[in-house]
TrEMBL record:
Family according to the record: Belongs to the short-chain dehydrogenases/reductases (SDR) family.
Protein name: Short-chain dehydrogenase/reductase
Keyword terms, alphabetized: Oxidoreductase
Any matching Pfam family: adh_short
PANTHER family membership: SHORT CHAIN DEHYDROGENASE, SHORT-CHAIN DEHYDROGENASE_REDUCTASE FAMILY PROTEIN
One Gene Ontology term of the molecular function aspect: oxidoreductase activity
InterPro entries named among the record's database cross-references: NAD(P)-bd_dom_sf, SDR_fam, SDR_oxidoreductase
Natural source organism: Phyllobacterium myrsinacearum
Length: 270
């Protein structure tokens, strides 16, 4: 590792959107960056792209081994790979819910478990898990997706306490709505029910509007760089004004007030 390098960073789900913007921001900041995607893509602006399916143990191991072969270390892991799911909670089969958790939760677990022994040997490392403001609040018609982010919140905070004495810290980055491709990582419920057709369609329209007016991936990337470089990192970093406001409301205001305003925001009847 050169004197000018801040270390080696591995970012999952880095072929587009937040992941790509984060990889580029870290590369500019002085990290040697490796990104992953499910399918082979070309290297981008000094970023080495690797194939990694976070739902497959062998694929994860191969990607981590390749970074070690080329650099001998991993200083920063950004668990960004994830997918969305739109629909009423009861409109998804158990199989679909398991597939969602396999990417958004167990994918994080797989990659983290492969990287932790490396960081422990180094006595140094930082893990940034990409959560969401939906990891803090209810999310009508995104219930299963929100559940995965709630799981990541609990996992990350608990893991940080377990490994802090080993020189490793775990932090959360919580974006709000971000201007990425709406269709790219969105799955729809596999057992749609007529009772939800109208309100689900309304929820999808609202989500599109929110995404179009959301923060840029570059804003999220800047926060990741801040979290990566902080000498004493905070437990969580929100991204953007809306996410910060939601975090404040959830923490400090009465539950009934939050409930009322959440229904109003989602255009649901009181």
């Amino acid at each position: 590792m050169s004197e000018k390098s801040k270390g080696v960073a591995l970012i999952t789900g880095a072929s587009s959107g937040i992941g790509l913007a984060t990889a580029q921001a870290l590369q500019r900041d002085g990290y040697r960056v490796f990104g992953t995607s499910r399918k082979q893509v070309a290297d981008v602006e000094g970023i080495t792209m690797l194939v990694c399916d976070v739902t497959n143990d062998e694929s994860v191991q191969h990607a981590v081994d390749e970074v070690l072969r080329l650099t001998g270390r991993i200083d920063l892991l950004v668990n960004n790979a994830g997918i969305g799911l739109l629909g009423g909670a009861e409109e998804s089969s158990a199989m679909q819910a398991k597939a969602l958790f396999d990417v958004n939760v167990f994918g994080v677990l797989r990659v983290t478990n492969k990287v932790l022994p490396i960081m422990r040997r180094q006595r140094k490392g930082r893990i940034i898990n990409m959560s969401s403001i939906l990891g803090l609040i209810p999310a009508p018609y995104n219930a299963l997706y929100a559940s995965t982010k709630h799981a990541i919140e609990g996992y990350s905070e608990s893991l940080d306490h377990e490994i802090r004495t080993q020189g490793i810290r775990v932090v959360l980055v919580e974006p709000g709505a971000t201007r990425t491709s709406f269709e790219e990582n969105l799955t729809r419920a596999d057992q749609p029910m007529p009772v939800y057709d109208t309100v689900r369609a309304d929820a999808e329209r609202l989500m599109r509007e929110i995404v179009e007016a959301g923060d840029t991936p570059e804003m999220v990337a800047d926060v990741v760089v801040k979290a990566a470089n902080a000498f004493s990192p905070k437990r969580r970093y929100t991204v953007g004004k809306v996410a910060g406001q939601v975090h404040f409301l959830r923490r400090f205001l009465p539950e009934s007030f939050v409930d009322k305003n959440l229904r109003k925001y989602n255009k649901l009847p009181a």
